[in-house]
Amino acid sequence: MKLPVKNLKGEQVGEADLPMSVFGAPVSRALMHQALVRQNANARLGTHKVKTRAEVSRTTKKLFRQKGTGRARQGSMKAPHWKGGGVAFGPMPRSYDQAMPRKMRRAAVRSALSQKLLDEGIVLVDKLEMEAPRTRDLAAAMSSLGVTRGLLVLPGHDETVEKSARNLTNVKTLLAGYLNVRDIFKYDQLVISLDALKTIEQWLGQSGGEIAVGDAAQEAAGQENE
User: Fold this and answer.
1) 18-27, 123-132, 198-207, 209-218: lowest mean pLDDT where?
2) At what angle do helices 194-204 and 212-220 cross, to 10 degrees?
3) How many CB atoms lie within 10 A of CB 6?
């Protein structure tokens, strides 16, 4: 499928073929949902903690004698039913990590990109480069491209573009090898440079582009990304 290629001024400078092995994959809502749930779960720190009755600092003295008071017997103020006592069955540190096979993770990203194409949310640019970090210039470029809430997909780290996007609340930069389901659907448009498109095809193309950056990407996506 061909899409117009624009420059940062919003002018069409050509056309490019999208690899249908990536952008024409079957759309599986169940697979994308599983990948998103895994990504959100893996982003959880799991450091929540409460004190049990063995950990609270209170007196160990018996409150009152066992018999003769007419009250229920009590042995410790550390018991959960006392104010200031320990918590019963409270949250403890744990890992929320979920496993998902690599092929399923990549299929989920292909499915998300294919859905994004159907939603007309793919914007191709010839290059995402700036002479100097300048937020105003990048905001103007996004306006020229008709991008309201965009994810800028870069082939590699570009300090000028990353710094320019840092203060824009509706724009985020992401390396092509770190594409993930959550970010794809969080933003209305994906602004992809031609170099980034090649990286995506190498990583997700079913013809044999299993490159290392893809493995690192899907593993690192748990922080934000998986």
Assistant:
1) 209-218
2) 90
3) 20
Phi, psi for residue 65 in degrees, rounded to 5:
-65, 160
> What does the buried/exposed string (b/e) look like for 132-167 if buried means 16 or more CB atoms within 10 Å of the residue's CB?
ebeeeebbebbeebebeebbbbbbeebebbbbbbee
The contacts of residue 119 (CB under 8 Å, 6+ apart) are none
Give the residue from 103, 122, 95 showing the smallest Cα distance to 218: 103
User: According to the model, what pLDDT value does residue 205 have?
Assistant: 85
Cross-strand bridge partners of residue 5: 14, 124
Q: Where are the beta strands (DSSP E) in 82-170?
A: 122-125, 150-154
- The domain 2-45+98-220 is placed in CATH, from the list 3.40.228.10, 2.60.120.10, 3.40.50.620, 3.40.1370.10, at 3.40.1370.10
How far is Cα 26 from Cα 119, in angstroms, rounded to an integer? 14
Residues in the chain: 226
Q: Which residues are CB-neighbours of 203 under 8 A, at least 6 positions away?
A: 106, 176, 177, 209, 210, 211, 213, 214, 217
Single-letter amino acid, residue 172: K
DSSP E strands in 33-141: the ranges are 122-125
**Average pLDDT, integer, range 121-133:** 93
The token pair at 76 is 């410790």
Determine the number of helices (DSSP H) and then strands (DSSP E) in the chain.
8, 6
